[in-house]
Design a protein that fits this description.
Layout (H helix, E strand, L loop, with lengths): L17 H7 L5 E9 L8 E11 L29 E7 L3 H9 L2 H12 L10 E6 L8 H10 L2 H16 L5 E6 L15 H17 L4 H6 L4 E2 L5 H17 L6 H21 L5 E3 L8 E5 L5 E5 L6 E3 L2 H11 L8 H14 L7 H20 L16 H12 L4
Parallel strand pairs: 6-10
Antiparallel strand pairs: 1-2, 2-3, 3-5, 4-5, 7-10, 8-9
Length: 413
Amino acid sequence: MAKAAKQFIPQRTDELTASWFSDVLPFKGYVASVRIEDIGQDVGFIGEVYRCHLDWKAAGDEPLPLSVAGDEPLPLSVAGDEPLPLSVIVKVPTDNDENFAIGDGLQCYEREITVYQNLQSSLGLPMPGFYYGAMDPDPAPWIEKPLLFLFDKLPIGGINWLLKQFLKLAGNSKRRYVLVIEDIVGARPPTQAEGGSLDDALAALKVLARFHAHNWMRKEVIEDHHRLWPFDRACRAYQASYVRNLDAFRKRYSGRLAAETMHRLDEIQERAADLNHELAGNPWTLLHGDYRLDNVLFRKGPDGSDELVVLDFQAMCHGRPGADVAYFVTTALTAEHRDKEDLLLHTYHDELVASGVTNYSYDELVIDCTKAKEVYAHRIVGAADILDTEKTDGSEALLDVMQLRVLDWLEPA
């Protein structure tokens, strides 16, 4: 039997051709030319993000009719029933070998495509529209169960050896992924590196609360989609990464972190597995997993008010909601906003209750956020050696900014 032809999945900008867009986009008309703009610099670690400007034509290069709605005329499809996008967003994996290995190994690329293809309409979350997604088949689907068994049973040194081999395997997989989604034109992107405003944070927490309430204990979703991992999956790997990277972390931030902070991190290391297990317990909900300012956009709604659009679903998982809340607060805002933490948490919890959740108290939220701050402070120690974020212009890398910000929020023992 003849082997099926391998699907073409572009990974480089020169492969994002007008012909390819014409073939995959779900519109009547074809793309005559493409102009590509790199918009992913400094906002992500494991992927490349491009805005692709499209010039549409009808058959025979005839001009397409234009819509009259909105401030800017938009070309209409051949059938005249829908506007054609003048630009789309394309996401592909990073070309950095180390960062690709972690993204592929953690199934981040596959997870996001799966979320857009299968879950977008049911999440109750404002997301960009989905146009196209494709990926190569998993080359080693059998590896998951034995890996998890070994992560649970091996000593720390053995886990670090296993992680090294696993990342080498993932880096050599050359598995291809591509995602094409709506470009949210004219939206305001908050800046992660500078830290957000309190108003932006409060608005984002309300959207997060509605998302959590909508997906509260949705067992059928995680039963049908095994890539939506529990929060504590392979959590001993984080303890192994901590040991592996601790000396480099101390050297990297020498003089910037107090000795008390390092002692606190060592203390958290002893409890890290328990903390992760507790944050994966009942009651749980779907978690965005990377809910931060760089992953939300503000656009004007029909009434002129700000509307949020949420991006980046590579880390979606399930666990107690405080895990998402603490991650957002500690990465979005500097510790100068510590006196506003009660306001932030009450705003989230009030919206959660108003959306129908009655079995998760405010006191539970506070406790979970405290645990989650410890978990994230601990996890970032092991992150730098698997995510290459060095910048060539001498400015501070986003990972450094986020790490120091999270540590600033770590409460005294």
